[in-house]
Amino acid sequence: MTAVESAPVPKRDHLLRRTLRDPLAAACLAVLVLVVVASLAAPLFTGHAPDRSVMADTLAPASGAHPLGADGVGRDVLSRLLYGGRTSLLGGGLAVLVAFAVGGPLGVISGFFRGWFDAVAGWIVNVIMAVPAIIVMLVVMAAVSQDLNVAMVVLGVIMAPMVFRLIRASVVAVREELYVDAARVSGLGDGRVMRRHVLPVVVAPSVIQATQVFAVAIGIQAGLAFLGLGKASQASWGAMLGDAFTNVYDAPVLLVWPGAAMGLTILASSLLGNAVRDALGTTERRSPAKKRHKRVVRGGAPAADVPADRLLTVEGLRVGYPRPGGDRTVVDGVSLTVSRGEVLGLVGESGSGKSQTAFAVLGLLPDDAEVVAGRLAFDGQDLLGMDTAALNRLRGHGIGYVPQEPMSNLDPCFRIGFQLVEPMRTHLGLSRAEARTRALGLLERVGIPDPERVFRAYPHQVSGGMAQRVLIAGAVSCDPRLLIADEPTTALDVTVQAEVLDLMRSLQQEHAMGMVLVTHDFGVVADICDRVAVMRGGRIVETAPMRQIFAAPGHPYTRTLLASTLDGGPVRGEPSGPPCADQPLKGVTS
Ligand SMILES: Nc1ncnc2c1ncn2[C@@H]1O[C@H](COP(=O)(O)OP(=O)(O)OP(=O)(O)O)[C@@H](O)[C@H]1O
């Protein structure tokens, strides 16, 4: 029996509150607030102008008039420290802003859409990275402007490639996740998928990167000022270090103030960045599941002369992957049909091409797949000719999908309720409240005992069986006419398998949905299917009504598969028993 684990659902906790639970983070934030407030409110703390020089006060020690003393040309050290903080903070902030404004969007677009944009952006980034940063800034300061802030803007552009690479890598990793596929299957457009599932993952590494850019910018700015660059009127910690260095033997204490201010600011911002990253709870980078390239779709003719109750028509479907040694064909000439209210079982050993066939219908094959079909039509619409936006509208609404791995198809960052509500709002145009009510009803319908609780839970707080029920609820939430279920019970234990199958059968009958049930299990076939198509080596070797398949299997391979199931032997992998007439296709892994 499936059950929600007893851990209570945590309340949404504000990021700042979570961060400040770490005492070190709280101390770092306090230091940064102090530095910012002191710099901005400098006139409140000192009456001296930072560039006002009084020769009589040269290297004056700390006193009431000069709490931190005076520098080599008689300027008040406290005043220069406070006003210098403005220059450093503004410079660091400018560099971060420019680096993220340039590198951030480019990284997201490149990682998400790849293709020519990615290639061009990658090339530009490589060129920028080959340019020596310090030389460029020296040239800019010498030839364009003596303003340190201008140099920091240039530094931001030079550092944008680092941001670009980091964000691109994060986006590439997350877009390969199954739950991103699942979101696309449920019909969410690229914008929503990016906003809801991709961008949240980018936030944590970006925070760390921002603190690094900030620290580097403050350091480089100080270096430039130390070399004497920058306007003489512009107080900065670097200029203070330069001045202190010339008087290092007479007043070594002058090195302490700007050094301590810089060190503390950089340290506090780095440690705070780490704490924020930890509080975001996404420290691990998600590993890419598979590599994708551009999808090529060729061929396809509009559907015509099909019976009125026909829902899905697949004719002569071929799926191949270009490989250096020759194309790898994984589905070869598959033809099948599904009528309204009919359940078609797609059966075969592992690697026979069942999922590839299902994904071709869903338009979810990897981008390097070549798909050719005489006809690939859903309810009178040509699927091959459809653009992504039309496919997005169709998926979820017209065609629902129940995946094999329930857990990997739910985004761990979002509550289950949110993930159910979103597609309904998109496809059915429901308000948030209406979608919530409908989602709760669906959760109850799929046999979840405490819908409210599961609605508020995160995926890790429910069991695998419960997650699969949630996905089934999601798949039928927008009243699809066809449901594609890819081994929906494989990841579940035996009792739960039976319950989930019962549920799918009754939902299918209630909604009069057509269904393609991908499975390797003849038990499942007997339970739920009206007709069966048996696949081997990328081809359909036999299609027949369910009872006929069991009573009089026509193809030797069907007999072998049936025998291995009925014997209780392994169905997956190469079947035992007499060799079949059909051998696997060249290049197809069985
Ligand atoms: N991106 C890809 N590039 C090349 N070959 C692929 C790719 N994806 C799948 N294949 C191959 O396609 C063949 C069919 O895979 P498919 O996932 O459809 O099998 P299946 O019948 O669903 O098996 P299973 O029950 O194990 O999921 C396999 O040999 C697999 O290695």
UniProtKB/TrEMBL annotation:
The keyword Transferase does not apply. The chain crosses the membrane at residues 24-45, 89-113, 120-144, 150-167, 198-220, 255-276. Residues 85-277 form the ABC transmembrane type-1 domain. Residues 566-590 are annotated as: Disordered. It is a multi-pass membrane protein; Peripheral membrane protein. One of its GO terms (biological process) is transmembrane transport. Belongs to the binding-protein-dependent transport system permease family. Belongs to the ABC transporter superfamily. This is ABC transporter. It comes from Streptomyces rapamycinicus (strain ATCC 29253 / DSM 41530 / NRRL 5491 / AYB-994) (Streptomyces hygroscopicus (strain ATCC 29253)).
